[in-house]
Amino acid sequence: MLKKSMIIVGVLLVLATILVACAPATPAATEAPVVPTAVPATEVPPTVAPTEAPTAVPTVDPAVEIAAVFAKSGHADTAAMAFNDWNEATPKEVPTACARCHSSAGFQEYIANGKVAAGIPAPAGTLDCTTCHNDTAKGLKSVTFPSGAVIEGLGQEAICMTCHQGRESKVSVDKKIADFAIEDVDAQVAPLVTKDAAGKETKRNFGFSNVHYFAAGGTLYAGEAHMGYEYDGKVYDIKNQHVDGFNTCLGCHDQHSLQVKVDKCAECHEGVKAVEDLKAVRMVSTAKDYDGDGNVTEGTAQEIEGLQAVLLGSLQAYAKEVAGAPIAYDTAAYPYWFVAGEDGKPALTDGKTTGYNKWTARMLKAAYNYQVSIKDPGAFAHGGKYIMELLFDSIEDLNSAEKLTTKFDATTLTREDAGHFNGAAAAWRHWDTNADGAFTYEVEAGCTKCHSAAGLPALIAGKEAAAQPAGNGLMCSTCHDTANFPALLAVKDVTLPSGKVVSFGENAGSNLCIMCHQARSSKKAVDKKISDFAVTDMDAVVGKITVDGKDQSFSFINAHYLGIAGVWFGTDAQIAYEYDGKTYLGANKHIGVDNKPGCVGCHDVHAGTPKEELCKACHGEFAVDDIRGMTSTGDYNGNGDTKEGIRQEYRALRTNLEEEIAKYAKAHGGAIVYDPNAYPYWFGDANGDGKHDADEKAYSGWTARLLKAAYNYNFFRKNPGAAVHNGKYVIQVIIDSIEDLGGDVTKFVRP
């Protein structure tokens, strides 16, 4: 539930006290707060009207007020473990690896020199004003994370994230596994023995890797920072998106008290009066039942808690059945994972616990991710979807162990969001790297209209297309007029790639949908290519032409994906290749469901799912495959069944077209095979097995006639709802494509 303007999809406001904590220690004596050396500018009171006598304004030094606020924060807590853990250490100093964040002097030395040369005498005291208020800190614009990833172009949040980034990453976990030369991820790992130059042996056990505490920056920057253990072959969300002004640490937290700006959160999130209320917030972009408990209204924090419970249970089952010893977790006691007793709690031997010592590589990855999710209490706000992806993948990986018999049914869980908000999908991740493989996270200008949150509103506002930062999906401002929320941006009509102009009605909400869901090519483009290559024989394999000194091949044209408008509006759109001399149906005449025409009448505008309850009003308890309109009376696919659903009729014909394409291609340019999951979809079938093998290259034996049919086939394959959106039209095009290739269409019935 949302209110007011500027509600952006993708993240809840930031939660969690920014306090760096370590292992228990004896509290130190309380120290007096340090008065800031840099005094913030004081606001100038309004000018008094000439006719009024000046009013005396009390002079209050802002530095004094700030010092009082800062003194109550975690950064100034003289009794905190974060600043006292080394008071009784030998030597009595904060080590160089810790001093950068656990002492003011260490932090300043680190940002100035990139390292801390020597330990800082303990007790080192708390952070103070000079920690952050100095010229070097002011100039920080980038942060290097433990993974080696560098985030550039930052503001003063770079100060915060220099420490709040964790101390481990996927890179370090993988390095540990590599150092121990582990081949079987489910096997016990022997100690690693190394020798120094003098021949002295050192034994290192394979143990848990702790991410460290309050690593909010690593959660926020998600798949860009690689703090979590990201499983190979999986794709992860990048930096969380939020409204302008609330995209950074300082946008959501007071920099001195560290408290969340709850009053600002409440402007958009109903029911938020305190920090704890933020845990109940759930955005429209987070619509799935991630933890499988059947509740899709609980807050993102609760979804994470549900997944944490499943992962912990999976770890316990794996530890007992595969690793060989039961395990228990204690969030407040280092090293957190212990050998468990029969009661499931850390077992005691002579009153002491034993750190878990039966680690396998598979177990380490999952336990590390569990700790990542636990040690950032504001993770649900900083990067909730990223955390849920890590938890899901850890559960999935544990349950893939062959030796594990007690497996959790991961099919009840959900990893991916609805398409518009699925930050791990290719639609949003395709542009993360450039041609050289370098991470740029920038969407090129020609794709920003549909593959960035800001591209479409910029286009509607009349701006030229420009490169945009990559994101995790659309945002509220993509479709809504934020100045008049929840009003939609106005789109009178839409010009399609064919040049045709269509509309669901002036400024109808569905016009926004088809700004993107319209395809990127058309019959016009196919005819132009044939003309450019001066093709006269439709059945001859077409060679190359030279344009501006460069050779160009006659190749396949991809209409792009989910071009719904090109199907719905039929011949009024002319996206599909319509054959000369034939007539075709125009726009679908389906009634405007829920008194709304087009896309928004039949689909939930955020999740994209069909409004099945509305469908049932006319179709009863239906299955999509069985729906057949009252006017759909022909046996279109010629199988003798006039009662099967229009979708079944269409798909049988589509299969016939694929077979006819293969038959034609073999007789003209060589064997061809279609792979819907590999661009450019059509490949030479070198071994003739009807499958796309890894070594088989893009098809090159194109004729003009083959291009037309293959274009149509792929266009409809990339429109999974084609039969519903305009079934009779797509059947017309399919039958005509088969006929043009020379196939027998006498048994078919063309609508």
What's the topology here?
Blueprint lengths: L61 H10 L21 E2 L1 H7 L1 H10 L6 E2 L7 H4 L2 H4 L4 E2 L5 E2 L5 H7 L6 H10 L12 E4 L5 E4 L11 H5 L1 H4 L23 H4 L9 H4 L34 H24 L3 E3 L7 E3 L8 E2 L2 E2 L7 H14 L4 H21 L26 H4 L12 E2 L4 H4 L3 H6 L7 E2 L6 H4 L14 E2 L5 E2 L6 H8 L6 H10 L12 E3 L2 E3 L11 H5 L30 H4 L9 H8 L26 H23 L3 E3 L7 E3 L19 H14 L4 H19 L11
Antiparallel strand pairs: 1-2, 3-4, 5-6, 7-8, 9-10, 11-12, 13-14, 15-16, 17-18
Can you offer a commentary on this structure?
The structure is a single chain. With 751 residues, this protein is mainly α. Among the domains are: 168-415, no CATH class; 425-489, no CATH class. Helix content is 32%, strand content 6%. A two-stranded antiparallel ribbon has the order 1-2. A two-stranded antiparallel ribbon has the order 3-4. Strands 5-6 form a two-stranded antiparallel sheet. A hairpin with a 2-residue loop joins strand 9 and strand 10 (352-353). The two termini are 46 Å apart. Residues 1-50 have low confidence and may be disordered.
